[in-house]
Amino acid sequence: MSKGPGLFSDIGKKAKVLSLSIFLGGENDATFSFDFQKALRSYESFLALTTSTVKKGGYTSGDVGAQYIYKNTSADLKVDTESNISATLTAFDIVPSSKTIATLKFPNYESGKLEFQYFHPHASLTAAVGLSQAPPVDLSVTLGTPTFALGAEAGYETTSGKLTKYTAGITVTKPDSSASVILGDKGDTIKASYIHYMDQLKRSAAVGEISRKFSTNDNTFTVGGSYAIDSLTLVKVKLNNHGTLGTVLQHELIRKSLVTISSEFDTKALDKTPRFGVSLALRP
Fold first, then answer.
1. What is the CA 61 to chain-centroid distance, rounded?
2. Which residue of 149, 241, 278, 283 lies most exposed, with the fewest beta carbons within 10 A?
């Protein structure tokens, strides 16, 4: 793939992935996942197995999956405890500098889709179409460089002939920082985020995000960050103006094998049950 501005979905993603998202299940859920896999395309061919379990109150659900990779093609298959089957086929470079993704689901086969991504040194393009009788269509385009990029995305519903979404964004990336502004929800929400790295390895950083919903005049301001206690342990924290505090502790047990413990609770309502999550990823 070429080193260009990236996809539109990448705008603002660094700040969200770093500290503004916490690994948790639903309300008061405990999530336990075990992941046995290797990085995509690290070998020409291999087979990986995955399994995860989610506990919701007194009910436990989970899924079992398999991933097969051969050269520039990968196939993923997942089956959950409710007999839902999903399969994803990814192919690189069918057209030079492109990625094609086909997703199929059963029995809800109409939720499947076909997506095409194209990368250029100064632009990227994605097009996705649903696999149904009246397929929805999503398009996005990004222009710029790895340092500066702007883009937009839109969703079109063929049954009604109306736009279901349209979003625009801009991002500026430097070696030690990144800032982005996104106008979404059909112009009803604006979100700005900034991330500043404290070290060259980008393990310690500070993040700030502010969003405003115009229809309700609701403002949300979130601050957070990550701090590397040592070469094996990382702590992440986030707090917003509504009193929601989230923390993550991640420790590398052995090379590339991580255990992650996360929690989230409302500081303005300490009587509510906190949310917890646990993740274990073992990678050979």
1. 22
2. 241
CATH number for 176: 2.40.160.10
Residue 1 lies in a domain: no
Predicted confidence (pLDDT) per residue in 235-277, tens digit: 999 999 999 998 889 898 887 677 888 888 899 888 887 887 7
Distance (Å, whole) CA 58 – CA 252: 31
Which sign does the torsion angle of CA 129, 68, 21, 147 carry?
negative
For residues 30 and 217, give the distance between their C-alpha atoms in angstroms, rounded to a whole number: 33
Give how many domains the chain has, as a whole number.
Answer: 1
Q: Which residue has the tokens 């030079």?
A: 96
- Residue 2 within any structural domain of the chain: no
Residue 115's domain comprises 8-282
pTM, two decimals, is 0.76
Tell me how far apart the alpha carbons of residues 70 and 63 are, in angstroms, rounded to a whole number.
23
> Angle at Cα 6 formed by Cα 15 and Cα 182, nearest 5°?
50
pLDDT tens-digit series, residues 2-20: 478 989 988 887 766 554 4
